[in-house]
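Re: your question from the hallway

Yes, I did run it. Sequences:
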Amino acid sequence: MTLLAKYAALAAQYARLEEAGTNPFNVAFEAVLSPTEAIISGRTTLLLGTNNYLGLTYDPSVIAKSMEATELSGTGTTGSRIANGSYQGHRGLEQALADFYGRKHGMVYSTGYQANLGILSALAGKDDHLILDADSHASIYDGARLGHAQVTRFRHNSPDDLANRLRRLKDVPGDKIIVVEGIYSMLGDTAPLREFAAVKREYGAYLVVDEAHSLGVLGATGRGLAEAAGVEADVDFIVGTFSKSLGGVGGFCVADIDGFDILRVVSRPYMFTASLPPGVIAATLEALHQLRLRPGLRHQLNANSRRLYDGLARLGFTVGPEPSPVVSTIMPDPDTAFAFWARLLEMGLYTNVSLPPATPKGLALLRSSVSAAHSPAQLDHAIALFADAGRELGLIPRPSQPAWGEPDFAGAK
Amino acid sequence: MTDSDADIREIIFDTLRNALPRPVALTEQTHIVDDLGLDSVAVMDFVMEIEDRLDLSVPLDKIAEIETLGDLLTVLRDLKAHV
Ligand SMILES: Cc1ncc(COP(=O)(O)O)c(C=O)c1O
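Structure:
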C-alpha cells in the first residue's frame, strides 16, 4: 500500500472526478461509428476531440490496403527491425515519406513519441546542446532526457530568447540542436519558423521540427509548417506521427544528412521495440497516398477549423491565438473545465480537457480538434452546444437577442 | 561585472515575489514545491525569469535537482562562476 502512497493526492483528485462523473481521462467508447461519431454511455456522440484531422480512419482504400497486408503478411512482426528484420512495407513507407518530403532519407518508428525519443537522444551526444521550445510536447522533453546532452528551454515561440541562449553557448564546444513544433497541440498556435531559421543560420545550429499536428494540415502540398513558411531547406530533421492526420499509429523522421542510417543502430527506441505490423504500415502508406491525392481534404479541414474557431470566438470564448485544427477555449480553472466538459458530453459532444503541467502558463483548457470529415452542420451543432453549456455555466454572456435557430443535427451526417 | 551571492539571492526572491499570487516569506530553506506549490513547468518558468536577469542558461537536469531556494542559489552561483 505504501508503494503508491506518493500519488495519494492525485489519486484522491482522480477518485473525486470519477464519483462526480466528470472524469475526462477515463472515457470509453462503446462503439465508434465514423471519424466524427461514436456511442458513449449509450448515446450517439459527436466527436470533437480526436486529432483525426483528415478523417481517414474509415477511408475505404486505407482499410482495404490494411486488410490485404494483414492477410498477406500476418498481424504482427513479432520483433524489432534490427534484431528480427524489416518487412518490405517498412522500407516502402520510408521511401514514400522521403519522396513526399523531397528528402534523401526516411526512418519509421513505432509511435511518434518514440520518434522524438529516438531522434533527439541519438542526435545530441554528451557534449552537445539541445535547445527546446518551452511548450514542447512531453515526447520532446522525454527524448531530451533519454540522451546525455545539456538541455535548456527557450521562451515559447521567441526567436530572441532562442538567440540569447545560442549566444551564451557561442564559445562552448558541441553541436547545438534546436527543437520546435509546427502546430502546438495545446493552443493550436504555429511556430515563427522563418525567424527561427534565421537564428539557426546565424549561429550554425541544427533545426528539428516536429510536424505532428501540421502534417496534412499546412503547406501547399501538406508537408507542414516548414513548407508553409518556405524554410524547408533550413530544417535539418522533420519528425512526425502517423496517429493524427494519417489516422494510424507510428512515427517518422526524414532528413538529407549524410550517414543518416547510422541512427538506426544508435537509437534505442528504434532498436529495442517491435516494428509496426504490416496492416498499419500498409494503411499509413495508403493514407499518405490519399493525403497527396486529395488536397481537398486539407482545404475542407482548414475551412472547418476556421468555422469552429470563429464560431467559438464570436460566442465570447477565449480561444487560442490563431485558427487551426486544434481549437482550445481557455477555462478559468480546472474544475470549470471538468464541469464544462462533462456538460458537453451529456449533451452529446465529446471534447478534451488539458491541464497543467501539460499546458502552457498553468492554463486549464477545453480542447477541441476538427476533422475534414466534420460537416458544416455538425460544427454548427457543436457551436450551439458550446453556447448552451457555456451560458449555463456562466462562461459566456447571454445574447441580447436570440442568435441561434434550432440546431440542425438531422442534417448532420 | 559580478553578481554577489546577496545579489543573486535578491534576484531570486524578487522574481518569486512578482510571480506568486500572495506574499510569502522566503528564505533559503523555502521548499519550492512543498512551500510554494509550484508544479514542474511553473518552476522552469520561474527559473527562466532569473536566467534572463543573470544572462545565463540553467540546464534542465540542474533544475530537476533543485528543491529549496538555497539549492537554486548554489546552482546559479556555480553557473555564474563559469561564464
Ligand atoms: C507534438 C507531438 N509530438 C509527438 C506526439 C506523439 O505522437 P504519437 O501519438 O504518434 O506517439 C504528439 C502526440 O501526442 C504530439 O502532439
